[in-house]
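Record type: ASSEMBLY
Status: queued
Input:
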Amino acid sequence: MRTTPVRLVSVLTAAALLAAACTGGDSVLDAGNDDPPETAAPVTTPTVSEPSGSAPDSEVDSTPDQPDAEPDDTAPPETVGPTTTIAPLADLPPCPVEALDAADGPVSITFWHAMANELETALVDLVAGYNSSQDRVQVTLQNQTAYESAIDKYIAGGVGSRPDIVQLPEYVVQAFAQSGTFVPMQACIEAADFDMGPILPRIADTYVFEGIQWAMPFNTSGPVLYFNRQMFEAAGLDPDDPPVSLEELRAASQQLVDSGAAGFGIALDSGRDSGGGWFFEQWFGRAGEPFADNGNGRIAPATEVLFDNDLGLELLTYLQDMTASGLAVTVGDNSGGQDTFFKMIAQDAPAASTIATSAAISSVVAALGSGVAEGLTPDDIGVGPMPGPSDTPSAQPGGASIWIPAGKSDEVTAAAWDFTTYLAAAQTQSTWAAATGYVPMRSDAVELDPIAALYAADPRYRVAYDQLLPTVDDASAVVPALGPLREIRAQTADAVAATYAGGNVEQILADAAAASNALITTYNSQN
Amino acid sequence: MLAPSAFILGLFIVYPLGRAVWLGQQRCNAFGDQCRSNGFDQYLDIFTSNEFQSALRATIILTVITVPLGLFLGVGLAVLADKHLRGVGFFRTAFSSTIATSVAVASLMWLFLLQPSVGALANIDWINSLFPVIKDPGLLQDPDTALPSVAMSSVWAGLGFTFILVTASLQGVPRELHEAAAVDGATGTMRFWKITVPLLAPTLIFVVIVLTTRAFQTFGEVDLLTNGGPRPGNSTTTITYFVYGEASVIASDPGLQAGGAVLLFVILLFLSGLQLRGLGRRTDLG
Amino acid sequence: MTDVRVPAPAPGTAASDGDEASKPPAWGHRTHAWDEPHGWRRFGRYALLVVITVAVLFPVYTTVVSAFKPSDKFLVNPLVPDSFTLDVIREAWTSGNLGRYLFNSTVVAIAITTAQVVTSLLSGYAFAYLRFPGRKIVFYAFLATLLVPLEATVFVNFQTIESGLTLPFSLPLIGDHIPFGGLNSFQALIVPFLATAFGTFLMRQALLDLPSDLREAARLDGIGHLGFIRHVAVPLVRPTLAALALFTFLSAWNQYLWPSLIINEADANTVQSGLRVLSKSNLDQPNLVMAGTVIAAIPILIVLIIFQKQLVRGLTAGAVKG
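Status: finished
Output:
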């Protein structure tokens, strides 16, 4: 009887050995794929459409992805219109924008969002402003704590449990467009004759899939460099001229470390939505290179990623060199986004800078304003463009957008659209940007106060806006649209983490690309 | 009279289990709304997949750390605080106190404790010079220390439970036995092994069972402390977190999720079999 | 599975159902202290106890210190309580919504506890005293559900709760569809846990331990089943009921996975899922999160102090289920 615990342990150990013996299996996502679907099989979702009048500016190429099309030879987007794997706009759920007029009383809608910290406060204010400005729609906010949660809970819930309007990040565009559970924003835009003109094309295009505008951009951000001006000065660097290219960042870090002004030049991470995934994609965009084939997945569903190339190698090597030489430090997965900032105020060996979303400005300023770090005021933090593999500041729009779930009553859909137009209005965008650090998604908002005044008074807020302005004509202008992009980000984040840990970067990169391609193949065979 | 219980158990345990077994052989699209049957050998595929094996390994390591350590600490402290000492009540209260912390409370306490830049532990110099990993990259950030750290927080949270049980059970050990043995010249160590341990055995088995089951169901600690990370390797993704965790690779495939959940059940069933045998024998003797 | 006698609540302590077993670890003094250590041994033991106490209480200490420090101080020296404010606690209570979460948790835990006590009494009684065909099979079926971990069923339960239950037949009053309130409702948090096989066994065991002629005598007095349960059984099995209630309350209160899955509206959170929300959306303010944990821990601390007597039995009772 007394042997039972011992036996338990021995059984566990045996199980562990068994487990060890079994490794080298496949990914769980290959489960059941004993006869892998023909890779050449076209996407299974029905209608490969005929050219459709309602799909904008498109001469629809109805041939879906060909698996072995030479990836380096992606046709330029101007000459090939988008493929349609979903349905032409006319066959998608309509947007009864007028239905609000017929509603008896105020229509209540729930809005799922994922704004944390200061951003949530700002959003609450914004929604309160909307609710009190009119009596037709009442919006209730529901904080889902993170985009990931919002996505998981949206997918897990049935129609009845889904919100009336939801904020979703740029990396789910393809999967959610293909889900068949949304009213395409384009339907509302056309029905209401909404003017998309002032919206920066690069931002609007982020949420276009197969020629259809699926969502309305709302909170647009970009990665920027946050740095400690005191440390820059102490190291003899000009805090008004932060590093723009990766090589400048290396040199500045060297100077910061050598001078003893900081423990590390920069705090890096391997987060999926930061250093491990998002920035990695961003750097491809910055270098003008596509991250995936078929025009970054925008012309037709992508069939493979393209990051296993010289640029990918160069980037990972750079990250490995930076950390190995002690110029940079990694804080790990940084899942809440705060660890790199904490590293900047660590008591010993603090980092002089970090790359993070521009949306963190408000939280950083508020935190420093409350005196959280001794001897560091909000003014001591500088903001510069995202350092990247080129000498010219530029970034792809990130952040999130507004989606309207289908299957709701006409009034609710109309109310959701009404609220969307509020969020997309120039004045709202100006107020929102000033309160957060997101950038206004439309050019006319920049001329309105409070953001106009803020940009004039505090250029730090403007950095993220300016780096979105450069016109990029090719597919690298916007982040890739990939069905399993969030899983692929997990792959690149693993790769970046393995790089910091000192692995062989060529192997790491090849493995990540292979895993990503398998994800894409599986996705394409199932959707 | 049975109806209420039978209805609830049938609806929320029997039916979902059966349905999960069925769902577990399906694969679904990215939105989980179109599924196809894949055959029951999909269970084998899931079981042997890298992700499940890695989660199984994490779960087993967690168990192998938390169960013996939890048992050792619980018994050790209970014995230590069992002596007739002035003020022992204070120590007992202290050791029992973690019973009041839920998984969420305990994990959040540890999250701040272990934060590598500004956390409490990072502010104690002598500990940091002994264990530089606390600051660089951080106990929860280093793939080698993350899982043991999660285990530590789990052991800590379970300490009050073990301590209270063992202390209560120690009080059932007749003093006269010890006294008599001591008179016969038995040392403290001898008395511990020859008298205390055998009499505590039922409680100890219980504690082992509870701690094992808890370890296999670990979710909250991982959700709050590491999100299943750190990368690469996701060394803290337990089976439960693999199935239900935020942004798990299978989060959008109900088929694979159900499959993973059923496998967890089967593994626990296997362990329960052993446990029941131990228990059954125990009660026969007792 | 030989006749598994449902393990009495606590091997080791439960053999005797009396007060002795249900006592909390006695903090009091014993009379004969023949083995009380002396001199250096005594000092060494104290030293060891103090060191371990410091280590065990350290996370609690840092939490409390940072929860009561103002935002501009808590990162500067997180180990030293050099300043004090209630502002952060207040903020956690109001904007952190902890007050609402505590209310929800209380409602849910009390509802589950009450329901489980009732359903367990009823089904325990049925297994103890009623003779009906298939009793043994049903009994083993109940037993088997103990082996199914929550983790294996929440997946489908999510769907059941969300869409309700459509019956293949129509029931009086209810009809053929039972809505469970959908996600975010109290029902969603409560209904799946209204009954457990564990409670059933515990009560069956306690009822079987009653003198066997008691039921017979009651029957001769014309007391029916429910009357017997109410007037005869309940007063006699009160210690077991209390243990079951405390254990049920604690496990209901501490649930984490289920509420985190089915709640997506701020106001519907329980303390545990609410802390999750608080933490995930305020990671840049650890002191606010720490304040939240302090608030969340206090009520349960109070409950435990009040019900100290039932604690050991409650815990061991629950241990059977794991």
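Annotation: Chain B touches chain A through 79 residues (CB under 8 Å).
Annotation: Chain B has one domain: 61-285.
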